[in-house]
Amino acid sequence: MQQELEKDSSELVPDKEYLEIVACTFQVYDKVFSVEIEKVLKVLENPEIVPIPLAPEYVVGIMSLQGEPVPVVDLSILYNLKGTSATERFIVVVETVNGPLGLLSTGKPDLVYEHSAEVLDVDEISIQYRVKKRDYETGKRDT
Predict the structure, then answer these.
(1) Mean pLDDT per segment of 10 residues, for the chain of length 143 residues?
(2) 3-state secondary structure (DSSP) of residue 111
(3) What angle do CA 101, 118, 136 make, to 5 degrees?
(4) CA separation, residue 127 to residues 10, 76, 109, 122, 142 (Å)
(5) In the chain, which residue ranges form alpha helices assigned H by DSSP?
(6) 19-138: which CATH architecture?
(7) In which element (H, E) is residue 100 found?
(8) Whether the Cβ atoms of residue 64 and residue 70 lie closer than 8 Å to each other
């Protein structure tokens, strides 16, 4: 009898490939972006962001994640996106080769089973735009 129950319950569970979350999607005005789920550390709603004097325009500021500084980037500036002011602000914190990086979202992020938007290479963003955690810990930029 127990053997039959185990067999029946296993038939109720669909294949794992259909349940696997592969990405986190988020909106910046009218554009939807996607980040590999393995890169996502956390999603935060309306965190406190402290502006950084003399930082590039696309760096909104810095936030704290468990006591560690995390630079926050506004993709609307990097991708020249326009829209109305968002009433909600979410930050998708991702892991990059240069440390954690916050990505500003104007819409509530979602977890998805397949990529349905432009997939961001967050490592490339952190390298190309020289956004490194250590730059904001010491206040110095690499040259």
Answers:
(1) 43 55 92 95 94 92 93 93 79 95 94 86 89 56 44
(2) strand
(3) 15
(4) 45, 18, 24, 9, 12
(5) 2-12, 16-19, 75-78, 122-128, 133-138
(6) Beta Barrel (2.40)
(7) strand 99-105
(8) yes
